[in-house]
């Protein structure tokens, strides 16, 4: 295209394309014309024409006249006709370069750089500095054509006589011209200046707010993700030095290591010798803190600021956490003058430190590291996860607890017990905060929001420290954690890696998932592995399925064998090879043993812990060259290698039921394992993806797309937990609670992602409407699941038993919805297992084709029918649970992991179902669930021999089941050792072991008495006597059990009690009161005893009512009249009607019947009615009517059984009392009768304790009788 055609194309583009280029085009055109004139290509011999510009026939202002001395504007055609060949010859890249202002002076040095023999990597930095960092793309274009551009610049300079072009003639005096100070010249100079200013446009561009300068943001790039990251997915140019290579099987993009950020003037490494004794002793083996730790040290150790530290993996963030921990220890030291050891000055009972790690494996590593370093201060560091539980005593003596987000969420949901931990927390460390973008991010948002609200409500100090390896939009996360941007925010880019990382992105050719694509992937992976092994490096190959670890390792081994390179992989020359070979021979994992001999290893979560530890130890000792593993290794264990290879990016997502792209966070975490600090100067990371995903991962890893909130996925369950905890009582509270979440931060920053428009955010900057909508939708979902009672009119929330149980046991609302449909009063073990397997907590367990055969084998031997077979996820969970209870261990290691997951979560969900059944008073379901709960815990079926719960020998168990299976434990305990030995065909010593176990097995004797209270009320007095020998080793300190009375059909629990036996307890007396409808007792009831821990420790006693004689019905009781409900207007008091009308519309049936006798008479009254029928409300009506009809100095005495009830009653009475001018007092016991008579109406509320309640009642009664016209209401 000719230059003229190009220019016309620019001029005729759409308005959208050219609007932002108008100014640039005018500048280019003016400069181009002046260049042509200066080069002599434009004919200058024609006389310049003079004239004036006219607009619609009228002369313009004289200020705009063109004088004879000024050049005339040429037409576009004139210029291009006169231009000659120069325009056509200029390269497009050179034209772009020449269009830059003030480029002429640097053309000559630019030519020298481009024509030099230095490589591109060396001159790229000089080139960017010369033309400006804003023109990185231009610099890359110049580098691509450097020889050709250098030649064109040379020709351009030669045609201009190798002289720099003169600048266009200026209006007015030149800057370097001598200044004349006569009056005429000064006036002319002033007029020219004013005229130039008048011609200048009013707006020269779009005003933009200057970017915020943060003191602790360290980056080598001018593009920082925290403040200018675009929600529209803006792409940034790839780093300098990036190369792209095309091969037959793949396309490879190589990104060199980031350029280090030079140290600032104020920076210095802090020697450990300068630290105080507390910190110095906690950094053993350190000579100084590293650069990041030295920068963070003043804030971490010398202040209580909330912090967010974003730094590459391996940069020493754990030591930053250690500094924050030491700060807490330093603040809780006694200031005693006596010389005592440093450890003795710490007040260990005054604080708790919580470290939230994303995975159990990482939690174990943190406990090991920090526990070892804090042991000299006598600080206990313990793990609290699903696998590691702590007793109350252990929690009390632990100062630092390392836990997972889910476990800490569960702990803080409880107001008592473990939940009391939260009141002592002084420091909350959250590791890997970038998991906010993960499915588990909702849990992190929940615990942070709960902590921030606790800080505000209790005015306590809880420091929050967030640690992250890679955090693009760190400003948003800092705002979420309440971090001060100028003091607590620290961002360090990838240039701070301890080992520089070279990144390789490989786009494998072929259709995704096709055989050709998989073949190319295997070939490319082998090529890279073989190349690195030849260079003497260790490699970790990351795959995304446990089975793939073995497949990949075998495929690499076979490819090396075909190429004759297998000897290069072998580690037989390692000095400890024979020792490791002996250790690995003891493993049951055949593939692991087979691969080790050839220098390969495997590692995944489905392997046994001891096998995983062995692989880690061997790889660390360099006895394995290639380790094929899953991403669990990157998250859980700090095991670096020179190179890491991510083989494939398709990961199966069980929640979606399909394959999804590997998370960018996982990619960055895996890349963080590349390079061995202290042993190597570089690391290499490879990611092998499909060709169509190459750009996605390039953009994501280099530009780092913003981390979004995933809170909406877990918001319903989180809201239920807050309602159960009591921190959210209505929609208003919930809206305020949402304001503490990361979701709130991101909606305001990126509303489009969450379904809002920019206009909606501008109209409602605090998102009150959106938050109310989210809360209301979640509340309605909970109400539909019967987990809360939601009053849509007032917006109030009330937790139900179902919601409380779901919050306590961490059950998802979706599972509760399933249970509501499937749960029935009468269920068998098979029904319970089928319902349990449908829980959404097991959605991640999917059926794999390779497992079907083994699952069918397990299904054939388990006792309960599996609904759905092995074709469904529910059937697989059911089969694995039954296999777990039966003691069957799968051969497939993936099935072993799935079975452990199913058993761990199954026990928790069964306990929740048991509590639901008990709250619903379902006798049959409760008994079955009690047995299944213990079955999972003990791995025994209810029909198994109960003595299997004791540590007896295998032959004893075998003979017990063979010869004594029909005997009960009580019958075995009544025999002698010799008789038992003979019974089981063994000797007396074996019989003695059986006898000891039988006598320690929890058994009881139950007796009862029937005591009728009225014609329709029966009291059953039950005595439970212990009939077993107590052993602290076997029973611990307590033995809990359930005792309940169920109806004759075994469907309904009439009354129940949870009791505890202690070592000193011989008998327990319990009284149950049951209703006998219409005085007609049922045929019988059953007293059932069920141990909470021991399988088979159950007993039941039938209670026949054949001989029971109930009293006749008393005719002295007043039957309830069937009368209309009285309206509140009967109070005849506008104040009371207005106040109580907010809560009730009318009196209920009981209140309507007793209203006249209580409110309008002065007679003593006794009201006996069930709980919750409105007795307290009618009592308040009576109080106010009595005070209204009495003298001004009268007073009312209210006696309640507990102080807490007195406080609640006073809170109810105060609002009306203020309006009526009545004082409400709560006198102490010793001053009650010595208080002088009040000057006005007074109400005195006394909360009597249970031990003196009757005394207070009698004294009050006698005293009231002495008063004139007094009355008593009970």
TrEMBL record:
Residues forming coiled coils: none
Keyword Metal-binding: no
Transmembrane segments: none
Keyword annotations of the record: ATP-binding, Helicase, Hydrolase, Nucleotide-binding
Record protein name field: Activating signal cointegrator 1 complex subunit 3
SUPFAM superfamilies registered for this protein in UniProt: P-loop containing nucleoside triphosphate hydrolases, Sec63 N-terminal domain-like, Winged helix' DNA-binding domain
Domain Helicase C-terminal intervals: 525-723
Lineage, highest ranks first: Eukaryota, Fungi, Dikarya, Basidiomycota, Agaricomycotina
């Amino acid at each position: 295209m000719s230059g003229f055609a190009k220019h016309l194309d620019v001029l005729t583009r759409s308005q959208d394309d050219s609007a932002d280029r108008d100014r640039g085009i005018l500048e280019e055109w003016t400069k181009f014309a002046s260049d042509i004139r200066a080069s002599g290509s434009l004919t200058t011999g024609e006389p310049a024409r003079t004239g004036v510009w006219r607009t619609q026939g009228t002369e313009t202002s004289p200020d705009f006249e063109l004088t004879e001395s000024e050049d005339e504007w040429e037409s576009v055609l004139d210029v291009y006709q006169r231009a000659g060949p120069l325009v056509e010859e200029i390269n497009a890249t050179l034209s772009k370069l020449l269009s830059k202002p003030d480029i002429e002076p640097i053309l000559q040095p630019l030519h020298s750089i481009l024509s030099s023999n230095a490589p591109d990597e060396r001159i790229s930095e000089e080139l960017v500095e010369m033309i400006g960092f804003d023109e990185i793309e231009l610099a890359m274009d110049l580098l691509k054509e450097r020889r050709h551009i250098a030649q064109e610049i040379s020709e351009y300079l030669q045609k201009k006589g190798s002289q720099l072009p003169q600048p266009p003639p200026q209006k007015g005096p030149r800057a370097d011209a001598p200044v004349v100070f006569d009056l005429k010249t000064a006036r002319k100079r002033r007029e020219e200046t004013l005229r130039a200013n008048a011609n200048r446009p009013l707006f020269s561009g779009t005003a933009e707010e200057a970017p915020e300068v943060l003191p602790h943001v360290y980056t080598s790039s001018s593009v920082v993700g925290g403040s200018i990251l675009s929600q529209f997915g803006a792409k940034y140019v790839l780093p300098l030095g990036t190369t792209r290579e095309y091969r037959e099987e793949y396309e490879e993009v190589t990104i060199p290591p980031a350029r280090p950020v030079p140290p600032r003037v104020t920076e210095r490494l802090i020697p450990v010798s300068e630290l105080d004794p507390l910190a110095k002793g906690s950094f053993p083996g350190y000579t100084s803190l590293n650069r990041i730790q030295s920068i963070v040290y003043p804030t971490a150790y010398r202040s209580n600021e909330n912090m967010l530290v974003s730094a590459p993996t391996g940069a020493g963030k754990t030591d930053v956490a250690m500094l924050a921990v030491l700060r807490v220890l330093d603040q809780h030291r006694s200031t005693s003058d006596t010389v005592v050891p440093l450890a003795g000055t710490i007040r260990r009972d005054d604080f708790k430190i919580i470290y939230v790690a994303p995975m159990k494996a990482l939690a174990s590593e943190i406990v090991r590291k920090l526990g070892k370093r804090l042991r000299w201060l006598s600080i206990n560091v313990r793990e609290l996860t699903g696998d590691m539980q702590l007793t109350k005593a252990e929690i009390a003596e632990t100062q630092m607890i390392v836990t997972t987000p889910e476990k800490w969420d569960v702990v803080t949901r409880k107001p008592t017990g473990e939940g009391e931990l939260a009141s002592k927390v002084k420091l909350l460390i959250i590791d890997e905060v970038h998991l906010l973008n993960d499915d588990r991010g909702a849990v992190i948002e929940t615990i942070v929001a709960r902590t921030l609200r606790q800080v505000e409500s209790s005015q306590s100090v809880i420091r929050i420290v967030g640690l992250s390896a890679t955090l693009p939009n760190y400003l948003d996360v800092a705002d979420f954690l309440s971090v001060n941007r100028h003091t607590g925010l620290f961002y360090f880019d990838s240039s701070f890696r301890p080992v520089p990382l070279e990144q390789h992105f490989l786009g494998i050719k072929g259709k995704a998932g096709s055989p050709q694509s998989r073949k190319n992937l295997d070939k490319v992976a082998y090529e890279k592995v073989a190349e690195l092994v030849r260079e003497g490096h260790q490699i970790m190959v990351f795959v995304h399925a446990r089975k793939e670890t073995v497949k990949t390792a075998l495929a690499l081994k076979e490819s090396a064998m075909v190429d004759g390179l297998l000897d290069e992989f072998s580690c037989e020359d390692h000095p400890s090879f024979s020792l490791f070979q002996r250790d690995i021979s003891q493993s049951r994992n055949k593939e692991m043993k087979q691969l080790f001999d050839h220098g390969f290893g495997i590692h995944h979560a489905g392997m046994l812990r001891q096998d995983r530890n062995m692989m880690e130890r061997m790889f660390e000792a360099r006895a394995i060259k290639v380790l094929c593993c899953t991403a669990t290794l990157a998250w859980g264990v700090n095991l670096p290698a020179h190179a890491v290879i991510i083989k494939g990016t398709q990961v199966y997502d069980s929640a979606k039921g399909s394959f999804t792209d590997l998370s960018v966070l996982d990619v960055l975490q895996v890349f963080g394992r590349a390079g061995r600090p202290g042993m190597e100067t570089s690391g290499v990371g490879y990611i092998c993806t499909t060709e169509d995903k190459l750009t996605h991962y390039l953009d994501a890893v280099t530009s780092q797309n913003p981390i979004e909130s995933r809170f909406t996925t877990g918001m319903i369950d989180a809201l239920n937990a807050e309602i159960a905890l009591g921190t959210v009582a209505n929609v208003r509270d919930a809206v305020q609670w949402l304001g503490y979440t990361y979701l709130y931060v991101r909606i305001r920053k990126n509303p489009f992602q969450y379904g809002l428009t920019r206009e909606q955010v501008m109209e409602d900057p605090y998102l009150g409407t959106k938050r109310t909508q989210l809360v209301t939708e979640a509340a309605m979902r909970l109400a539909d699941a019967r987990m809360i009672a939601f009053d849509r009119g007032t917006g109030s929330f009330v937790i139900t038993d179902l919601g409380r149980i779901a919050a306590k046991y961490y059950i998802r609302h979706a599972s509760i919805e399933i249970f509501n449909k499937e749960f029935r009063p009468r269920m068998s073990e098979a029904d319970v297992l089928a319902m349990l397997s449908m829980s959404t907590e097991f959605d991640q367990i999917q059926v794999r084709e390779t497992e079907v055969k083994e699952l069918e084998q397990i299904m054939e031997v388990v006792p309960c029918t599996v609904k759905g077979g092995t074709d469904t996820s529910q059937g697989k969970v059911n089969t694995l649970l039954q296999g777990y209870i039966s003691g069957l261990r799968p051969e497939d290691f993936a099935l072993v992991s799935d079975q452990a997951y199913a058993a761990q979560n199954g026990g928790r969900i069964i306990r929740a179902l048991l509590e639901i059944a008990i709250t619903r008073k379902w006798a049959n379901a409760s008994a079955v669930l009690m047995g299944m709960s213990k079955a999972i815990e003990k791995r025994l079926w209810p029909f198994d021999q109960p003595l299997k719960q004791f540590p007896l020998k295998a032959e004893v168990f075998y003979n017990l089941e063979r010869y004594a299976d029909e005997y009960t434990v009580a019958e075995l305990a009544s025999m002698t050792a010799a008789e038992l030995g003979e019974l089981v065909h063994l000797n007396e010593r074996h019989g003695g072991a059986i006898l000891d176990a039988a006598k320690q097995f929890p058994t009881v004797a139950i007796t009862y008495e029937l005591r009728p209270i009225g014609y329709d009320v029966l009291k059953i007095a039950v005595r439970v006597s212990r009939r077993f020998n107590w052993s602290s080793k076997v029973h611990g300190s307590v033995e809990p059990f359930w005792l309940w009375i169920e109806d004759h059909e075994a469907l309904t629990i009439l009354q129940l009690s949870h009791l505890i036996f202690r070592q000193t307890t011989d008998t327990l007396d319990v009284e149950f009161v049951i209703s006998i409808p219409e005085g007609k007792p049922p045929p019988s009831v059953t007293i059932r005893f069920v141990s909470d821990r021991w399988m088979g420790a159950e007993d039941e006693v039938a209670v026949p009512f054949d001989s029971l004689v109930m009293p006749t019905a008393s005719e002295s009781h007043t039957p309830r009249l069937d009368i209309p409900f009285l309206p509140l207007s009967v109070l005849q008091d506008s104040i009371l009607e207005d106040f109580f009308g907010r809560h009730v519309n009318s009196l209920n049936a009981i209140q309507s019947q007793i209203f006249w006798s209580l409110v309008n008479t002065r007679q003593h009254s006794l009201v006996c009615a069930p709980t919750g029928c409105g007795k307290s409300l009618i009592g308040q009506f009576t109080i106010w009517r009595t005070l209204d009809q009495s003298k001004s100095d009268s007073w009312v005495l209210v006696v309640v059984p507990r102080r807490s009830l007195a406080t609640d009653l006073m809170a109810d009475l105060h609002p009306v009392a203020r309006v009526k001018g009545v004082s409400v007092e709560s006198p102490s016991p010793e001053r009650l009768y010595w208080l002088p008579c009040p000057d006005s109406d007074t109400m005195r509320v006394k909360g009597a304790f249970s031990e003196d309640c009757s005394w207070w009642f009698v004294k009050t009664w006698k005293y009231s009788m002495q008063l004139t016209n007094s009355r008593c209401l009970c």
